Amino acid sequence: MLQCDWSERTTTVPGRDGRIGGIPTLSPTSMSGPLAGLKILDFSTLLPGPFATLALADLGADVIRIEAPNRPDPVRRLSPQRHGVSAAHAWINRNKRSLALDLKQPESIDIVRKLIATHDIVVEQFRPGVMARLGLGYEQLREIHPALIYCSITGYGQDGPYRDRAGHDINYLSIAGTASYCGRGAPAPSSIQVADIAGGSLHAALAMLAAVAHRYRTGAGQSIDVSMTDAAFSLNALSGAAYLAGARAPRPESERLNGGSFYDYYATSDGRHFSVGSLEPQFLQAFCSAMGHPEWVTLAVTDMTALKQQIGAAFVRRTFAEWCDVFAKVDCCVEPVLTLEEAATHPHMRARGLVVDVPVAGMAGSLPQIAHPVRYSATPPQYRHTGEALGQQSRDILASLGYDDTQVQKLADAGVTTLTEA
Prior knowledge:
The chain has helices at 48-58, 87-92, 106-116, 130-133, 138-141, 169-175, 194-218, 228-234, 237-244, 281-290, 296-302, 304-315, 320-327, 340-344, 347-351, 394-400, 405-413, and strands at residues 39-42, 62-67, 81-82, 85-86, 97-100, 121-124, 149-154, 222-227, 264-267, 273-276, 334-336, 355-359, 366-370. By secondary structure, the chain is an alpha/beta fold. It has 2 domains: 39-234 and 357-413, Crotonobetainyl-coa:carnitine coa-transferase, domain 1 (Rossmann fold), CATH 3.40.50.10540; 264-344, formyl-coa transferase, domain 3, CATH 3.30.1540. A 6-stranded parallel β-sheet has the order 5-2-1-6-7-8. The longest helix is centred in the middle third of the chain and has 25 residues, at 194-218. The protein starts with 38 loop residues before the first strand and ends in a 9-residue tail after the last helix. The model is unreliable at 1-29 (pLDDT under 50).
């Protein structure tokens, strides 16, 4: 199969203005997947950046993850450890190569600048200005590679009064207004990192691929400023659109989809829960009939408070298993709230292949992991290996840049890099 080698960008010499004339060429590559040939340097840590590059690596992009030898990603320390590696690290850094570099040492900057010449995208997650102070900012690197795509993921963006402010997922959701109408009368912490992933990771992946498409047409690279707060603000979606059009600002349990209607969770007699989302008339009628109360259809129009109370009182009279039996036969947007253990072994999840066995990097054996969630008819994702040990590919990557064994060992002795043999 012929794949697009994104690093073979044009047939002409780059100009100093950051634009390249001509049309990108195609060349064969040994990697498979729709992004085969796309080369990424990933300087990010924790969740937002690594989640974005995981999606791209699963689709064939060649991702080199760069970490400091003396300050590795904290995710590497998370429990549980499997095969000597954090299970979380092994998943989120799947299919990526590991290069250890201490960016505070000038030799490391020289190595990165050599790598830039042959790479398409830089992903970084430092506070604004950090990469520029290291000599690795966008304006500095585009001098080497005018067609470079440079993606910066931060909490509050590259400008604005909060640009240098520290934050976490819970803070970005707070500032973006989304937390103000989530919960039972007061904000509730989410079980997943919404601003980090839906805000930072997925918007960053979308933006990088949009920039690749733009460069394919024009030859021009660009910088990308991904603010997790900005992206979280956009997730206000329906409520945000209504408010900006003149509606009252949403409050907890005041909207159709946040507990202000019967669209909600209900407890069973044994402390489990069911979700009821039967908003459409045909689903509402089927739900009410399954509950043994067809008269509730009228309450949905006349007295929502009474309807919710009656639904709650009915659910709590039976066990979780009993309600599972009832609604397994009824198509009305009502489902049990599963634990993660139950979800991972659910027949539908199994049929969709959402858990895969991935070879452990550098050793025998495999590790079950969450799969890439999208299916492709022609270019399915590949699971080459789990996340690597710190510096596992340092020797090979440096050798590809022309460093001999003596030079590589000298860099390791000076603490510039770490050599972890597979």
